[in-house]
Structures are given as structure tokens and as C-alpha cells.
Amino acid sequence: MKTIKLGLLGMGVVGSGVVKLIEKNRADITRRLGADLIITKVAVRDLTKPRSVSLPEGVVTDDPYAVINDPDIDIVIEVMGGDEPARSLILQAIAAEKHVVTANKHLLALHGDEIYAACESKNVALGFEASVAGAVPVVRAIRDGFSGNRIESVYGIINGTCNYILTRMAEDGSSFEQALMEAQQLGFAEADPTFDVEGIDTAHKIAILASLAYQTGVDFHQIHVEGITGVGPEDIEAAKEFGYVIKLLAVARRQDDRLEIHVNPAMIPVEDQIASVGGAMNAVELNCGMGGINTLVGPGAGEGPTSSAIMADVVEIARHAILGDGYPMPPMGAPIHAVSPTPIIPMDQLVTCYYLRFQVADQPGVMARIAGALGECNISIATMYQNGRQRKANKPVSVMMTTHTACEADVKRALDILIKSNILLAPTTLIRMEGGE
Ligand code: HSE
Q1: 208-248 pLDDT, tens per residue?
Q2: 378, 433, 377, 422: which is closest to 400 by C-alpha?
Q3: Which atom of ligand 1 has the smallest separation from the CA of 134?
């Protein structure tokens, strides 16, 4: 029987998951491939660190070059994460004509162009299904499943940690800190969880999906990114009052020849298909033109789901390696020379509905001044709600408002007027709303 030899760079949560998955499903994988998969080398940073898997003597090394320079290895699986040395090692593995599978969204969002071009020039494969939405095959869906369509929008929940935190806060009143700690214990969170809660991980992922969907380079630094640390229990309760749930939303939509792309907490109507997707689950809605609206839902983080996506790539690449037919799929689903940049719409030009929570003194005339500032900036109020009565001087009361569709620049202008008016006792919370008019 033929063998396909694998080398791993890294053996943390995901790398260990890959080892376990191969052992657990070896018979099925071998039957599907008609070949056996063998892990021949695994490079780790610290040889003394305890691991949840054991490998035969001599397989584990602290020298990553023992993996990328091993002439027998067909596929290098990079699961170390981060920028360097992952970037350099991947580029060297490609230069050595090895196929690469990676879960590294950070790297692809920032250096994808360089890595995609290197793969194309060496005619080797790059598998990165695991970089977005865990087990959910969204990269394949965009690149293969809907390759006959013009994708109009990619929209969804693509960070399991934030979805877990927001779900726990909404469903059982957990604190942000408690829910984050649980997400870390469950192996969902990034090594640096600020990447999750500040929206950076989500931005990495939407940059990758947008590049694939629109065959464009996306300048990561132009993506508007907000995380969930400003979302409080009061906002979650207000959302319920108004018939919404709060999710950390990633959006990449075509608008003529420009691209709307942003990551922010958003209020989503409860009846929306993705509103009920809770816990660490991810959901990606693809508006595929003639292919209709398709929503993919599944576990988006953790050892099992991420290693499942890695193995999907390994099996696909191994099939081509066995056939020896080269690798027909360019990483971006189109040759690099066909990829062109798309201008990104400045956030100030966004038109949507807004939820605003003002913290003000509970005294006559305050509501009128807020309404006046909004009116002056051409913003129409949809609903207004005050949370109880605040009798203590200098203690704020929360006043929540939702607006009809407004231009973001106008909303910012109204907030500036209110900041200068000195009626705000604390910063205002702004959450964009989906589905309003
Ligand atoms: N930290 C990520 C998440 C892991 O919570 O979704 C998967 O990329």
C-alpha cells in the first residue's frame, strides 16, 4: 500500500487533535485514500512539555527544519500559529515543493498574497479550510461549491469564543470574564484571547473569505474592527426588549465595484436564521446569486472541529499526490494574475440602523436634547427606552434608542454634538443593527 508522509509544525491543541483524529479514523481514511497516512516528524518548541498524545520514538523534534527539509515528507501541516516563524517555515516548505496545510488565519490574512503566489509558482497545494469556521467547510463552499456563482455577500458569526461569551451572557447572565475563562478551558480561545474578544480573529477570517469570494486582495488594515468588550448586560437585555440578539458579526458585501467589509457587534433580529446559532457554533451565510442564500452552520473552534478541517485538506491533497496529477486548484480559486484589488467603502458611508445607549443624568430636558442632536443630523428615532429612575446626583441612567437607517457619518456627528453638550456622563455605546429600515 502507498503511504503519504506528514510532518507537523506545532503540537498544541490543534496538532494533538490531528494526531488523535488520524489514529481514531485510520481505517476509514485509509479506505477512502487507498493509502496510509504516516506522521513521520513533529516539531515542537518545548520537548519537555507534557502532551495529550504520544508518538513513536524519534518522531518529535525541536527542530522545525527536520520537518521541512525531510525529503520523504509530502505534506507539511502548520499548526504553530502566529506570524513568524510560521511564515518563513511555510515559504521554505513550499520552496522545497511540499504541499502545506495550515490553520493559520492570522498569517493568511496578512501574508496570504505572498504564500498563495509561492504555491502557484511551485505548483503545490495550500489547504486552509481550518483557518475559518473550524469544521464548517466554508472555504470549499466558496472555492468549489459555488464556483459557478457571483457571490454577493458573506455574512456571519466566525469566532466561537465570542459567540460562546455572548450566548452565556444572554442565556444565563454569566459575566464576560467567567464566560471567557470557560471558552479558554474548552480550547476555543486563541493563545492571546484579546484576538478573539477584540474582533481581530474574526477580521482575519473575513479577510480570507472575502479574498476567496471576490478574488481580490484585501488589505487587512482597512477592515473596520470592533470587538465585544464594550457590550454590557444592559445592551443584551435591551436587545431582547427590541426583539434582537447581539452577535459579533463579520460582513463582506459587494456594493457595485466596491467592498463593504467590517467586524462589529451587531443586533440581529431574533427571527434571522443565524440569531439562534449559539455557544461556540459558527454560521456563515453566503448570498450566492443564482445559487441562492446558503447558510453553513457548525462547530467553529476547538481541537476536534479544527483538526477535522485540517484532515479534509490532507485527504484532498493526498488524493492528488497519489494520482501524481499535480494540484489543479490555485489557493485563491483563481490564478494570481486574475486577482485584482477592490476598493473598500469607508465606514462613514455605511447606511444601517443603530442602537445607541446614552448614559445621562436623569433630569428634565435630557431626552429632548438627545433627540434634538439626532434630528439635527438627519437621524430618525425608531424607539426609545429608559432603564428605571436614577435619583442619585451625578449617577447616570441609561437611555437606549434605536434609529431608522442612517448614515454612519451623521451618527458620529450627532455623538460629537452630544459629547460637546456635556450631558453625557459616560461614553455612548453604539451597536449596528441588521434587518431594519
Ligand atoms: N479562537 C477561535 C475561535 C478558534 O474562537 O473561533 C478558531 O479559529
Answers
A1: 999 999 999 999 999 999 999 999 999 999 999 999 999 99
A2: 433
A3: 7
Which value, in Å, is the radius of gyration of the alpha carbons in the chain?
24
Between CA 118 and CA 120 the distance in angstroms is 5
- Maximum distance among all alpha carbons in the chain? 83
Report residues whose beta carbon is within 6 angstroms of any ligand 1 atom: 134, 159-161, 188-190, 196, 201, 300-301
pLDDT of res. 313 = 97
Contact, 430 vs 355, CB < 8 A?
yes
Which residue in 116, 123, 128, 115 sits closest to 327, CA to CA? 123
Task: Confirm if 309 and 142 have CB atoms less than 8 A apart.
Answer: no
Q: 82 CA distance to ligand 1 centroid (A)?
A: 13
Distances (CA, A) of 136 to 133, 284, 338, 343, 396: 6, 9, 27, 29, 44
pLDDT tens for each residue of 304-338: 999 999 999 999 999 998 888 777 788 999 998 88
CA of 409 to the centre of ligand 1 (A): 32
Identify the active-site residue in 5, 41, 98, 205.
Answer: 205
Alpha-carbon span 428 to 417, nearest angstrom: 12
Cα separation, 327 vs 121, in Å, equals: 12
- Surface-to-core class of residue 279, CB atoms within 10 Å of its CB (0-12 exposed, 13-18 middle, 19+ buried): middle
Which DSSP state fits 165?
A: H
pLDDT above 90 covers a percentage of the chain that reads: 88
Q: Annotated catalytic, 98?
A: no
Per the listing, cell 471558552 goes with 183
Q: What is the pLDDT of residues 41-56, one digit of tens each?
A: 999 999 999 888 999 9
d(CA 157, CA 159): 6
Handedness of CA 80, 85, 91, 97 (dihedral sign): negative
The residues of the chain scoring below 50 in pLDDT are none
Cell of 183: 471558552
The helix/strand/coil state of 251 is strand
What is the chain's length? 437
Q: Structure pTM?
A: 0.95
For residue 426, count CB atoms less than 10 angstroms from its CB and return exposed for 0-12, middle for 13-18, buried for 19 or more.
Answer: exposed
Question: What span, in angstroms and rounded, lies between the C-alpha atoms of 185 and 193?
Answer: 12
pLDDT at position 326: 75
Closest by CA to 180, choosing from 201, 169, 170, 171, is 169
80 CA from centroid of ligand 1 (Å): 14
Distance between CA atoms of 140 and 129, rounded to whole angstroms?
A: 7
